Amino acid sequence: MFKILTLNKIAACGTDLFDRAKYTVADMEEAPDGIMVRSANMLEEKFAPTLKAIARAGAGVNNIPVDRCSEEGICVFNTPGANANAVKELVIAGLLLTSRKIPAAIDWAKTLKGQGAEVGKLVEKGKSAFAGPEIMGKTLGIVGLGAIGVKVANTALSLGMNVVGYDPFLSVNAALNLKPGVKVLKTLDEIYAQADYITLHLPYNKDTKDTVNADTIAKMKDGVRILNFARGELVNSADLIAALGAGKVAAYITDFPSDDVIGVDGVIAIPHLGASTPESEDNCAVMAAKELIDYLEHGKITNSVNLPDCELAKTADCLVCVIHKNVPAIITQITGVISAGGGNIENVASKSKKDWAYTMLDVTGVVNTGDIGKIEGVSGVRVL
Predict the structure, then answer these.
(1) Distance CA 33, CA 40 (A)
(2) What structural domains and CATH numbers belong to the chain?
C-alpha cells in the first residue's frame, strides 16, 4: 500500500486517480511514499526515509529543495504545460492592461461616484489622461518559448502583433508548435532592440536572476512595457522603479507583487493569479497524480526536474530502479552487484540529466538492493 501526503488542497479529479486498493491519500501521513504539493514551502522539510517522489501541481519548484531531494534519492516532478493556457490568457490581458491604463482608469471612475448628472461630462473631460496605444501592429518580444511562451506567441500573432522570441533551449516540440509568423531571434539584445512589449517566460535560477536590470533596460526601446508572469526575481525591482520614474519603461505588470513595487506609479501588481483557474488546477492535479502513479508502480519518469525521462517494461522477475550520480563506471558497479548475486539482466535503460542519472534494469533472479545502495554515488534503489 502506497501512502500519498497532500500538503495543499489538491483537486479531487487528481486524487481520485489513486486506486484506493493500492493507495491511501491524506493530508496527514507519517511515512509517505509520495507527496503532492502546490505552493507549500518545503525548503526546510525533513523527509521521511520512505519518501520516493514529490509531485508539484504546477510548473515552478522554488518551494522544493530539489538538490537535496536528488541526494536523498527522491524524484521531483512538475506539471509543465498543465497551467499554460490559464497563464497565457492572463498575459494577453496584461498586454491590454498596460497599454490602455485600464486599472488606473477604473480607479479614477470610482471617484466620480456621487457626482450625479455631472458624471458623463466629467468622464469625457478626464478620459484623455488614460489614453494608450493599441497592441495591433506592435512588436511583442517573448523571452522563453516553453509551453506558456509558445501559446502567448501564437495568440499575440493572431491579434495582429509582430512576435519575436528568444530561447537558448528551444525544444523541437516547441519550435514545431510555433505559428510560422513567429520569428525566433538569436540573442536577447535583438529582443530588447525590437520589442514594444517584453514578456518573461523563463525559470528563475542563479543565471536568470535580475534578467531585467539597469543594463538590459538601457538596451530596450523607450516606452517599453514589461510583463512578468514567470517569477518576481527575474526583475530587479530597484532598477525597474528607476526606469519607470525616468520614463524609459512605460508600464510594468507582474503576477508576483513585492512590497517595493506595490503602489508605484506605472506598476500593475496582480496577486499571483496566473494559474488560478479551476481548469488549471484540475489539469495540474491530474498530471501530478499520473506522474506519481507511473513512478511508484512502474518506475517510469516523465517531467522530472531532477532526473531524466526514462521507462522500461518489466518482463522478468523484477525491475531494479536506481538513482545515481552521473559519473563513470557506476553502471558497471550496479550490474556487477546484480550478476554477483546470481541475477541475469534481460534489459537496461539508463538516462542522465546533468549531474544525475536514472538506470532501470529488468532482472531475472533475486537482487540485493542493500549492496547496490552501498555503491558510492547511488542515492536511491527500488525493486518493483
Answers:
(1) 18
(2) 1-82+277-298 (3.40.50.720), 84-269 (3.40.50.720), 311-384 (3.30.70.260)
The C-alpha cell at 277 is 483557474
Return d(Cα 311, Cα 101) in angstroms, integer: 51
Q: For residue range 37-59, list pLDDT tens digits in order.
A: 998 999 999 999 999 999 999 88
- The pLDDT tens digits of the residues spanning 124-143 come to 999 999 999 999 999 999 99
pTM for the predicted model, two decimal places = 0.82
CA within 13 Å, CB half, 107:
9
Cβ pair 99, 132 in contact under 8 A: yes
What is the Cα–Cα distance from 89 to 148, expressed in whole angstroms?
10
Strand partners, 351: 358
DSSP H helices, the chain, are 12-15, 66-71, 84-100, 102-110, 119-126, 147-158, 172-177, 188-194, 214-218, 237-246, 278-298, 330-340, 369-373
